[in-house]
Amino acid sequence: MNLEAAKLVFYEESYELLAAMEAALLAVENAAGPERGEHLNAMFRAAHTIKGSAGLFGLNEIVAFTHLCESVLDKAREGELAITTPLIELLFTCRDHIGGMVDAVRCGVAAPESSALGAQLKSYLDDTAQAVPAPAAAAMVVQQEHAGPRVEVESGGDHVVSSDHWHISLRFGVDVLRNGMDPISFIRYLASLGRIAYLTTLYDGLPNPEDMDPESCYLGFEIEFQAAPNVDKLTIENVFEFIRDDSKVRILPPHAHIAEYIRLIKDMPEGMSRLGEILVRGGALTPMELDEVLGIQRENAGAGEHRPLGTLLVEERLAPPQAVAAALDKQREHAAQKTREHRVVRVDATRLDALIDLVGELVISGAAAQLSASRSADSALIETIASLGELVERIRDEALSLRMVPVGEIFSRFPRVVRDASRELGKDIQLELAGEETELDKSMVDKLADPLVHLVRNAIDHGIEGSDARRIRGKADYGTVWLNAYHESGSVVIEVGDDGGGMDRQRIRNRAVERGLIQADEVLNDQQVLQLVFEPGFSTAETVTNLSGRGVGMDVVKRNIEALKGNIEIDSVAGEGTVVRLRVPLTLAIIDGFRVGVGQVSFVIPLDMVLECLDLPTDTGNSRQHYLNLRGEVLPYLPLRELFEVDAPAPARQSVVVVQYGSQRAGLVVDNLEGELQAVIKPLGQLFRGVRGLAGSTILGSGAVALILDVPDLINRAAKNERRKVALIAAREARHPALREEDRP
Amino acid sequence: MAAADSKKTVLIVDDSTSLRQVVHLALLQAGYEVIEAADGKEGLARLDGRRVHLIISDVNMPNMDGIAFVRAVKQLPDYRFTPIIMLTTEAQEDKKIEGQMAGAKAWVVKPFQPEQMLRAVSKLILP
Amino acid sequence: MAISSIYHHERCILRIDGSLTIYEAGEAKRRLMDELNLAREVEVDLAGVAELDTAGIQLLLMLKREAARQEKPLFFHGHSKAVLAVVDLYNMAGVFGDPVVLAGGAG
Predict the structure, then answer these.
(1) Do residues B99 and B52 make contact, with C-beta atoms less than 8 angstroms apart?
(2) Which of A10, A69, A80, A494 is the most exposed place for a label (fewest CB within 10 A)?
(3) Using a CB-CB distance cutoff of 8 angstroms, which residues of chain A are in contact with residue C53?
(4) Proportion of chain A above pLDDT 70, given as a percent
């Protein structure tokens, strides 16, 4: 078994469960009555499941801590504990703490200290333990005493699996004696298959005499059984086949067998995709046990609760956790074979990346084949290769879409962020989410989360006014912050908006001048002024609180977004609010590109960003100003020859490719237009690293390398040139108004 | 049921003489006492006060079928807690369930090997 | 099954003879409880128990627990072969094995 791979699943599961727990906590805060009970149940289950899974991996600290949480939640849902604000706060903290512990395991660092939180949790348990008998807490203490410091946990919590014995747990049904089925006979028969090493009779189920039906059975047994050779789980289970329907039978194999199951599961042929099937084939689970647990699962589902089979198997002690983990591992190996029952399949992200890499190679080879075919002038071949190319293109799209996840994955954390921030700042905030289903690349999702949290906190801190100010402006007392996501020409746009006071341009300008970011007389357009808040050193924490604008750490946000080849736009209307718009590419792997040539060098421009192509007017070709008049609009342009120092004479006729990113446009001057292609983005080689304006490289069908242009960076540079020039003109104009006409393009 | 030094008695009720005999022989060799009956009615007649530790009954029999027989046994004060093994066939899942409802909680599927029958019997009573 | 009782003052010697199984369980429960309620101290003689099943041992357990609850001393002795077989299988020698004074103070 690959324990590490299984652990990855555990992390994923834990994060999902923690998210569920958080959602439930938020709901509990706002709910009452039976609805509240349902949310408490959900929280309890989340804690319980994490505990169970953590036990699989011997993560004893997580087990111990989640056990405390679980116990407190159990009391809460039983109504033995009042849901107070401090308790909810504590549970929020505990949830985060569990997350921290999981993170710590993941990163291989020491787990955060739990004792203080643990003590707080315990105080809730102790309070009630005195008034009400607390079986859960009592059982826990007993277990710890017996198990000592080495808590070898499995989630039933009752027993410690040990030694080379089978552990058989029997709870006879109440009617077995009346049916002529005496436990004595079954146990004797069991003894004929080996040796009963130890047997404990449990009779705490025996009621008081007045309630006791003398014909009913009230006994249970815990048996340590040393099986004869060749006695497997099925054989043992068959001992109890006649009472199976009414009684609870749990058979846990000895360690040696667990290893054997794992070996069998690992050696299983390809094509097994169902967890239960894998476990049954491996001998870790009997068909009847599988039926039983599927029955439980159905019942749960009927109650509106979906529980993974693996979790149930471990909880019900039907199969050893290690074997379940091995089977999950096996199952993942066959994840591609979707079964009707698994609508969602977990795939290791690295494997997806490997697939996409391969698809990339396929695209390149396809292009090479197309090139050769067209040279051969064999029309049948050309046709075949063309249809092959179409298929490759579809495969590429499908493969890329596998990495797509809904942006809702990030959005779901914001109710908590907003709740915390609004409490901290004493502001009443309402959060609105839209476009959660918008998909983007998984790697983007991970990297967008932090910048978004930052922006949302900032909106609450600096965007939304105090309620007094709001009332004066005739706004609702509570402020609204919204998150919205949508697709726009090959990019994903995520907006963070608020209905606060808007940004004060004059103040931003003043501060920027004060900080030495701009000259006092520098001419900036509106967007450029607003963008100043993203400049490093624009503001510091202590000044920001007095500022109605924005500030803290916004330069970090901008850096993060730019690292994703994205950009930021701000819309702000004084008194009405602000929208910050993040625009990032859908994916970083393969793009549709437009190929251009300068001398012998090929460049690729992402096709989404190409607006149009036109000839470079000969009269402006050597102009220092680098402006074009595009149907009455000023279009700054950059000659790629100069920019990348291409050492070849310019041809008589050059072309301009007009590109757009966000709301900005620029022209790129090239020698030739070479048409569309699919470009598999490869990292830049050592030679080009550090060259600005390049986003990566790609290999052409001919085997030559083409450079992919970083259009946002180029547009930015063109715009900066423009800004500098406009400032220059303005300055000159002030001194020599007569020059004005000349300098205008 | 424990300790009695005398042998345990099994009643086999089936309309097939050969089947009764095979079972009889196997159980005898394993150390049980066996009494036979050809149908439910005869089976009830055998429950005449003697101690019977286990009953094996077929489902389909003339006169009184297995289900009716089981129901009748469950009414007899001295025999109502006797374990009963039903002999069913794969095709008669409904009969098996009916038998279980009536109180026959154990079963052996026909056709069976004598050892299979012995295993089923010894789960319920040891010789 | 036969349950007989002999009283020396309030000390009761209960003797169980024959089978103590599910067939006798209803009747046995009544008798055992009646005697326990009457007596101040009970000695259960198991020498005559010829057959014991799970229903039977549950009754003995019940008797023992109820005596403890009523704070009446209760002993088992003379375990027959049939009793020992079940007690051994159920690993309950600690419960039924040596005569032990169960209730507080009477030791």
Answers:
(1) no
(2) A80
(3) 177, 182, 184
(4) 80
Indicate the number of domains in chain A: 5
What local confidence, expressed as pLDDT, does residue A726 receive?
Answer: 60
* Distance (Å) from the alpha carbon of A223 to chain B's nearest alpha carbon: 17
- Half-sphere exposure of residue A475, counting CA atoms within 13 Å on the CB side? 21
Domain membership flag for residue B28: yes
- Residue C80: closest CA among C51, C37, C54, C102: C51
- My answer on whether A77 and A177 are in the same domain is no
Cβ contact A657:A668 at 8 Å: yes
Question: Which of C32, C90, C95 is the best residue to mutate to test the A interface, defined by the most A CB atoms within 10 Å of its own CB?
Answer: C90
- Same domain as A702, residue A675: yes
Around A329, how many Cα atoms within 13 Å sit in the side-chain half-sphere? 22
Amino acid A163: pLDDT: 53
**Do A363 and A460 fall into the same domain?**
no
Average pLDDT over residues B31-38: 93
Residues A671 and A576 in one domain: no
Do A229 and A361 lie in a common domain? no
Give the CA diameter of chain C: 36
Judged against a pLDDT cut of 60, whether residue A401 lies above it is answered with yes
Mean local confidence (pLDDT), A435-463: 84
Rounded to the nearest 10°, the torsion over CA A344, A345, A348, A349 is -40
Residue B53 lies in a domain: yes
Facing C51 at nearest CB: one of B1, B77, B81: B1
**Nearest chain B Cα to C82, which residue?**
B3
**Chain B / chain C CB contacts < 8 angstroms:** 26
Please determine, for residue C25, whether its predicted confidence score (pLDDT) is greater than 90.
Answer: yes
Of B3, B78, B81, the CB nearest to C52: B3
Enter the tokens of residue A221.
Answer: 């047994």
Higher per-residue pLDDT: A333 or A431: A431
Least confident of A439-443, A634-638, A688-692, B71-75: A688-692
The answer to whether residues A205 and A191 belong to one domain is yes
Q: Please report which confidence band the pLDDT of residue A688 belongs to, taking 50, 70 and 90 as the band edges.
A: low
Number of domains in chain B: 1
Q: Are residues A211 and A326 both part of a single domain?
A: yes
Chains that touch A (3 or more CB pairs under 8 A): B, C
Interval B110-114 mean pLDDT: 79
CATH number at residue B51: 3.40.50.2300
CA-wise closest residue to C69 among C93, C97, C37: C37
**Mean pLDDT value across residues A226-234:** 86
What is the fold, at CATH topology level, of the domain defined by C2-92?
Transcription Regulator spoIIAA (3.30.750)
Query: Tell me, what's the pLDDT at A273?
Result: 58
CATH number at residue A607: 2.30.30.40
Q: Does B84 touch chain A (CB under 8 A)?
A: yes
Same domain for A574 and A461 = yes
Nearest to A143 by CA among A42, A28, A261, A63: A63
Task: Report yes or no for ipTM above 0.85.
Answer: yes
Q: Do the domain assignments include residue A338?
A: no
**Tokens at A453, concatenated:** 């949290």
Backbone φ and ψ of A280, nearest 5°? -65, -45
Q: Tell me, what's the pLDDT at A269? A: 59
Structure confidence at residue A580 (pLDDT): 92
Burial of A406 (0-12, 13-18, 19+ CB in 10 A): middle
Structure tokens at A449: 């989360």
Domain residues for B106?
9-124
Instruction: Enter the tokens of residue A54.
Output: 């953590």
CB–CB of C23 and B78 under 8 A? yes
**Nearest partner of A165 among A225, A222, A221, A223, judged by Cα:** A225
Contact with chain C for residue B81, Cβ under 8 A: yes
